[in-house]
Amino acid sequence: MSTCSSSSARPLKIGIIGFGNFAQFLSKTMIKQGHSLRATSRSDHSQLCKQLGIPFYRDMSAFLESDNEVVLICTSILSLSQVVKPMPFNSLKRPTLFVDVLSVKEFPRDLLLQVLPENMDLLCTHPMFGPESGKHGWQDLSFMYDRVRIRDEALCYSFIHIFSSEGCRMLEMSCEEHDKLAARTQFLTHTIGRILSEMDVEPTPLDTKGFQKLFEVKESTVKDSFDLFSGLFIHNRFARQQMQSLEEALEKTKRKLQERMESST
Ligand code: NAP
Predict the structure, then answer these.
(1) What distance in Å separates the CA atoms of residue 161 and residue 167, rounded to the nearest whole number?
(2) What is the domain class of 8-173 according to CATH?
(3) What pLDDT does 115 receive?
(4) Of 15, 61, 138, 253, whose CA is between 20 and 30 Å from 28?
């Protein structure tokens, strides 16, 4: 596995697009590490940014002119296209490292390669944790990345170091490989959580350890927005296969029970 190689990591000027739940969570650690942040978003997060000491831009051109070394895209999967397609890239002052953290990877890679000017580097990432699982630190939590188009190795190294220095398990893999594996793991977990939520499962005095774990799955997945869950399905081509496998498995299980019931009567 190759990593971005360079001498040493340094504090970065990072501009964040989409200052929602996940961006706010990431920015706390970035601020702690001494990076200089600024943000822009669809909604007005200026009050929160003021408390955090981060300049907040309502205007995308002014944000891009604010001399970022890294532009970190933290918008929802579903809104990526409408956020990046109209971006005035000519406002950028210098070649910049674009990084995305979307929970699907082929989709942002393809779209960003299409819209970014050729002199912009691109790193596609997926921190495999969030505000809940990462609330006590990032030690041993996985960080996936694909160096899609990297020329400034030192800058890429400094960005990746944000996660490696917190003790994350660093996983370099292709966006395609990520989407295959994430459909079988993260998407399946979220789907089961959403199904349990539709069933209104609630704790009872008789709960087994197994049920408590299931309940935790429900509780943690519904904390994420429905936009996020929809994005996992709509923009990961491997998720459809998983949904089909899940339906087939339910049918197969029901058939087996039916057969057993018939043979025991
Ligand atoms: P999310 O619902 O996926 O995204 C919320 C963000 O998207 C907010 O910044 C919101 O902006 C922006 N947004 C939504 N619709 C928009 C639109 N029509 N136009 C412009 N911006 C729009 O929730 P999230 O948990 O914060 O996730 C953000 C990104 O991080 C997603 O791509 C997600 O896949 C990824 N991610 C999340 C987690 C996690 O644990 N939550 C972990 C890893 C990766 P405003 O706030 O300004 O309205």
Answers:
(1) 10
(2) alpha beta
(3) 98
(4) 61
* 41 close to ligand 1 (CB < 6 Angstrom): yes
Q: Give me ligand 1 centre to Cα 175, in Å.
A: 19
- Please tell me the predicted confidence (pLDDT) of residue 7: 62
The model scores a pTM over 0.85 = yes
Residue 1 has pLDDT above 70, yes or no: no
- Pocket probe for ligand 1: among 17, 19, 22, the residue whose CB has the most ligand atoms within 8 Å is 22
Among 17, 107, 125, 228, the mutation site with the greatest number of ligand 1 atoms within 8 A of its Cβ is 228
% of the chain residues with pLDDT over 70: 97
Which amino acid type is present at position 90?
N
Query: Measuring CA to CA, which residue among 154, 177, 126, 129 is closest to residue 5?
Result: 154
CA distance 139 to 167: 4
| C-alpha 172 to ligand 1 mean position (Å) | 23
Q: Where are the domain boundaries for CATH 3.40.50.720 in the chain?
A: 8-173
Q: Give distance in angstroms: CA of 244 to centre of ligand 1.
A: 27
